Amino acid sequence: MTDTMNDNYIQDPSPPLFGVCIPCVGGIHSHSSSKQTSTDSPGVCAFILTFISYLLIVATFPFSLCLCIKVVQEYERAVIFRLGRLLKGGAKGPGIFFIVPCIDSYRKVDLRTVSFDVPPQEVLTHDSVTVAVDGVIYFSIKDALRVVTAVADYSHSTRLLAATTLRNVLGTRNLAEILSERESISATMQSSLDDATDPWGVKVERVEIKDVRLPVQLQRAMAAEAEAAREARAKVIAAEGEQRASRALKEAADVINESPAALQLRYMQTLNAISAEKNSTIIFPLPIDLLSQYMKNGNNKNGKNSKSKKDLLSDDE
Fold first, then answer.
1. Which residue, 137, 138, 186, 224, has fewest beta-carbon neighbours within 10 Å?
2. Is 250 helix (H, G, I), strand (E, B) or coil?
3. How far is CA 159 from CA 24, 114, 149, 291, in A?
4. Is the pTM of this model over 0.85?
5. Are the C-beta atoms of 283 and 274 separated by less than 8 Å?
6. Which of 120, 76, 116, 117 is nearest to 97 (CA)?
7. d(CA 139, CA 264)
8. What percent of the chain clears pLDDT 90, i.e. is strictly above it?
9. Three-state DSSP class for 253?
């Protein structure tokens, strides 16, 4: 019995009108792929609904123009669907475009650059240091059709992908690289995000790392290390300065030793400097020749005393 019914159904060349519409909408479309849906003919029901919609537009003219004519701005595009199918010709705009009420629906897409903050992400670096890093992403839409048809919420998806990419990229870097190589990290993140969002019709224009927050204990350790390094450099610089100053003094002493008059000039220059800075100081100049004579006499007496002591010691023996 069932075999004969199936044979009769297959051999029937002209099924009724509603028998054609129901299999087209419910049977064929539910089991076909998305590419087949976009290329198949709309069906008889779609033609009927379209014809009725145009009749309503003509019957209510010119009042129907308020519902049929739409406007999009210079920075916007409109993606139109007719009975769930994407219209040919791509996105409409900017300017005026026409839709058919009841069977057409459209969605506006903003093409301007959008920026959003990536919330602080706890990242474990390659050298096992936990840091909190946040950033900012700038992106825009380059293909309005793919933004509408390829992804449900392009903005939310881009935000989640940016946070994940930030953690993945920083997890492969050391703390020193994160602090000093922000530009290269931003370029790596931008290329990775741009490749991932290209099928969605989104163009990632710029990625910037805003702040890197370190633990308090690590900040104190780094501050102590930097202070010790600065003190070490200061001591080295001071030692090098003293070494150079001693060499200069030695050279000056050699020059003064060669010319006795130079010592007198230096003495007078010192007196001039002291009198200019400290006006309340009383200075009694004393000729250096007298001092040198007394120093020679003192040296001679010391020599005689030492000789006499040596003679006494030899007599005692």
1. 224
2. helix
3. 40, 11, 19, 88
4. no
5. yes
6. 76
7. 79
8. 19
9. helix
Around 37, how many Cα atoms within 13 Å sit in the side-chain half-sphere?
14
Of the segments 60-64, 192-196, 287-291, which one has the largest average pLDDT value?
192-196
**Phi and psi at residue 75, to the nearest 5°:** -95, 15
What is the DSSP code (8-state) at residue 26?
A: I
> How far is the C-alpha of 93 from the C-alpha of 78, rounded, in Å?
6
The owner of tokens 């930097």 is 226
CA distance linking residue 64 with residue 315, whole number of Å: 145
Contact (CB, 8 A) for 97 and 78:
yes
- C-beta neighbour count of 75 within 10 angstroms: 13
Rg of the chain in Å (alpha carbons): 47
- At 243-271, the pLDDT tens digits run 888 888 888 878 777 777 777 777 777 77
- Both tokens of 295, joined, read 């120093």
Residues 108, 71: Cα–Cα separation, whole Å:
10
Please give the structure tokens belonging to residue 102: 């009841």
- Give the DSSP H or E segment for 205: strand 202-213
Find the helix or strand (DSSP H, E) in which 107 lies: strand 104-110
pLDDT (tens digit per residue) in 50-109: 888 888 888 888 888 888 888 889 999 999 998 888 888 888 888 888 888 888 888 999
